[in-house]
Amino acid sequence: MTSTFIRDLTLHFEAGYPIIFIISQEETRVFELASEAAKIAGRTFIRPRPNGKEMSVAAQISAAKSDNTVIMLDNIHRNLDDPGTIRLLADIASQNNSSSTTVLICAPWLDMPPELERMAAVLELPLPTPTQLRAVLDQICAEVNVLQTEDDALAMIRIGQGLTMDEARLAFRKAMIDSPEEATASQASVTRDKRRALRRSKVLEHVDTPINLNDVGGLDQLKQWLDSRKDAFSDRARNYGLPTPRGLLLMGIQGCGKSLAAKAVAGFWGLPLIRLDLSAVFGQPRPEADLRSALKIAEAMAPAVLWIDEIEKGFDQRGDGPAARLLGGMVTWLQEKQHEVFVVATANRVENLPPELPRKGRFDEIFFVDLPSKHERREILSLHLRNRNLNPDTFDLETLVRQTEKMTGSELEQLIIAAMYAAFNRNDVLKDSDLIRARRETVTLYETFESDIKKLREWARKRARPASLDRRTTDLFSKTSLKDNNKTEPINKQ
After folding, report:
1. CATH hierarchy code of domain 230-364
2. What is the pLDDT of residues 217-247, one digit of tens each?
3. Which of 328, 306, 307, 309 is closest to 317 using CA atoms?
């Protein structure tokens, strides 16, 4: 990928672009690559500002003693609202010939002045590829005299994907120094450093995925779909000609396991899980730049799962503000992405979902996650009891399942917790009576938002695929809905 970048930058030098912005936080790497590209293009390359010293933009530009020179400027992106700086850059752009000076500006983000939009080229430096990370790791292993097996080296490279070259070099070196003989400990060290690095992005989070599909109750049809694609990122799938899966949109009732399913996808497929916080994106001074940076990191970590929770809250369907521009950037990326980034987006309120998002081509499938059916409630209750070292066979689950109709999966878990507290406070074991009493004291989401849930189900009946094989709940609702409509029809006519 770096060779492609060098080739692209060389072409810009040869074509005589007067101003080139490179979006990157890696000044040293940009300097090295730009020097190489300038040499290939037959251009003189200079970086006028010495380390540790300040120079005005005019002084840096005047350092070019002749034409056919590339001048690398840094730390001037914060001055791009200054009329004097804009005038200096515009004067260079007005020369407009291949033998003139080219100004190369390295910046972590860019607010392009309108005066320069038609004069400047903008390139983004990609994050290091696995091959480049391997070269860094091999160099560090040689420096500290550590031998790694091929499997251990590949594991380190996989963990290091998404880091900059400098971040990876420091993380690898620290891991090799701290645990030279323990591959597992070294990998854990790099994982911790990577988590810290992603946290600095303010919009991305590296999520540990200790759960698997077996930890999710119900959702049989969704599980079958995922199981049929568990080898979709393998070389065998690529050689077979299969396209890489794009992603899933999980829509449904709050508390029914959509977020848990997103985590389980990564665990089941053995892929890293990254969470994109859209609310944090909107809280940044430059949300569009932060979104682009986040998606670039996700691509560098490929193959990976990108989890976007409650995606409908992140985009406004009205106007041409930042939300609309972010939506445009997101749907374009979803449609055009070539990297093996599997997107799992969840949504609760379909009426707030922009119509551009669920369109075919952005996601492979749209699943509707409904209230758990009878057999799913039994499975969820058994799962949560076993997780608390309780034997489900010692409880009257059939009675409890009947009495927990229309409860969400999270409500079933909280029911068990509430019953355990009651038993704990009287210093006794958990009994069926505790569970039944906790059920009576629970006000369910369905009871509070019945009309909203019915509308959501009606929307999903023709637009989404059920995540569960048992459709009796939805079918029963359809019949009930028709009866309710017939009953209210005379009132509507009056």
Report:
1. 3.40.50.300
2. 889 999 999 999 988 888 888 889 988 899 9
3. 328
